[in-house]
Write a structure and sequence with these properties.
Length: 220
């Protein structure tokens, strides 16, 4: 259910980017997509780690990231890395924090990954930057390992303030915090609607390619 909502809100967002640039409601609805995906990534990490399939999970996201880079770059029209790298960075942090390393070492390693991600975003932008990375990490600890929607809402607000003040991004990202409410409501019934894994993974690059082709065919 949450995966389906993530797919739909992302599609609506990209419709606003490519085909309906003057209709703001598409972009506002689309603000829900990133935190919904962040939850799905965090949940995927949790279960793949539990089932011993983490290597395959990471390989799938890495392949998706590579395949999606060209259509993503064509959409944003400047040098940038798609959100797959954001999720890989979050998974790297979670992997370190959930490892058996000594606590000081794991915290140092996690902070080094955070610093690297933030620095890289300053050099060549990747989708949602450190804001997206930390949203996925927060989702793991506050919505997957334990259900603390109130605390997650507070953390989401804090990350949004950081996003606005220190990353000079738009105010409209505020609407992303409401994704926490959808997750809290839908998580108990999440298994009602299941999306095949191949559809879930391939939707990201394929929908961008299709929208780009439609955009090229339409009169300007």
């Amino acid at each position: 259910m949450i995966k389906l909502l993530a797919l739909l809100t992302m599609l609506i967002d990209h419709l606003g980017v490519i085909l309906f640039k003057d209709i703001m409601i598409f972009r506002l609805i689309g603000r829900l997509a990133m935190p919904l995906y962040a939850y799905c990534i965090a949940r995927g990490f949790y279960f793949s780690k539990q089932h011993g399939t983490l290597k395959r999970y990471v390989s799938n996201i890495l392949a998706l990231t590579i395949i999606s880079e060209i259509p993503y770059s064509l959409i944003v029209q400047y040098p940038a890395i798609n959100i797959g790298f954001t999720w890989l960075s979050a998974i790297a942090i979670l992997f370190v924090l959930e490892s058996n390393m000594d606590r000081p070492k794991k915290y140092l390693a996690a902070w080094l990954i955070v610093l690297f991600s933030y620095s890289l975003d300053r050099i060549i932008s990747f989708d949602y930057g450190i804001y997206g990375v930390m949203t996925a990490v927060a989702m793991y600890y506050l919505m997957v390992k334990q259900e603390s929607p109130v605390m997650m809402f507070i953390v989401s607000m804090s990350l949004w303030i950081f996003y606005i003040l220190f990353m000079n991004r738009s105010f409209e990202q505020f609407y992303a915090v409401f994704a926490v409410l959808f997750i809290a409501f839908l998580s108990p019934i999440d298994d009602i609607v299941r999306i095949p894994k191949r559809v879930y993974y391939w939707f990201y690059p394929l929908h961008m390619i299709i929208l780009l082709l439609i955009g090229k065919m339409l009169p300007k």
